[in-house]
Amino acid sequence: MAARSALLNSFSVTPESLETLPWRVGQLLWRRLRLRTLESYIKPLVSASFQWITFLTLSHVTISRRDLINLSALVNLGALTIGRGVLTPDVGLEDVVVRAWARAAAEAELFSLLRVLNLRNQKDVTARVFQYLHDFPSLSIIGLDDCSIGVKNKQIARSFGWRYTTGKMLNEHLPDSSEGNATWDSVTHAGFSAGGAYSIDTVTAEGVEAVNALPMLHFALGAAISYVELNASGNYKLQCFERVAKWTPPPVSNVEGQKRPMAAVDKSMGLPRKKPMLRASKKQIMGDLLIGFGT
């Protein structure tokens, strides 16, 4: 019964609470908790009809790379914070995970409402990720704290449509009482509000207004960090990249279809006639993200 009760309240399990349990019960509980996947926690947060927006924070947890990639199932995700101590299981967030997210966004229209991505103490992600972020239609703010990417990468980020800035850009969206200091929850809310300005160009103003009116559900898995204050307006604690332009990848050249130099053509065979080709133009049109509201 003790193990079952603890499992039902697994979000509150701490090292201190485990110490109060008999050794065999604590051992059984630990084994069962390790069998739980991230998906089992995320499933109740999903609203396929977009009745609320989810702000998800992960910190001090070890999860599989597959579980991280499967966060794409959280279709109503508005802000994602990958905090300190998130391992998969030997390293933190990697470029390959962000690339998988981008593919899901491009091919399956997932992450359609994600405006904010916060990274804390993530040393394994590199500036390569900027080339993947264009596939997230609403992503507007990247908040960084003690990561491997930052101000040193501002030039390459700018080439992909991202401008380096600091937390000062969020001041007008922070509570008046914060006076430069704010919790991570406040910073995430401020980023979400600021990100709406860019989303107007990709979603339409009416869509942004409808999203802003939705209730927001905060969920943190792992050690609590959201209440810790930081200097949001300082350059050290919070660095940001703000999306200022939509970057379009250059077309992939067809190497096999390139013409050979004239010197390499045997003139005795005559020049081959070029066959006419019809090319279908493709347009990516994002549908109404908010279909199903109130249903």
Write out key terms for the chains shown.
single chain, alpha/beta, globular
Description:
The protein is of the alpha/beta class. It contains 9 helices and 9 strands. A 7-stranded mixed β-sheet has the order 5-9-4-3-2-1-7. The chain has a two-stranded antiparallel sheet with strand order 6-8. Strand 2, helix 6 (95-108) and strand 3 (116-120) form a beta-alpha-beta unit. Helix 8 runs antiparallel to helix 9. The longest helix is centred in the middle third of the chain and has 20 residues, at 184-203. The relative contact order is 0.14. Residues 6-12 and 255-295 have low confidence and may be disordered.
Euclidean distance between termini CA atoms: 39 Å
Q: How much is the average pLDDT?
A: 75
Assess the beta-strand content as a share of residues.
15-25%
Biggest β-sheet: strands ordered side by side in the sheet: 5-9-4-3-2-1-7
Q: What percentage of residues falls in helices of 4 or more residues? A: 25-40%
Spans of at least 5 consecutive residues with low confidence: 6-12, 255-295
Counted by DSSP, the helix tally is 9
Order of helices and strands: HHHHEHEHEEHEEHHEEE
Q: Mind telling me the C-alpha Rg?
A: 23 Å
Please give the number of β-strands: 9
Major sheet size, sense and barrel closure: 7 strands, mixed
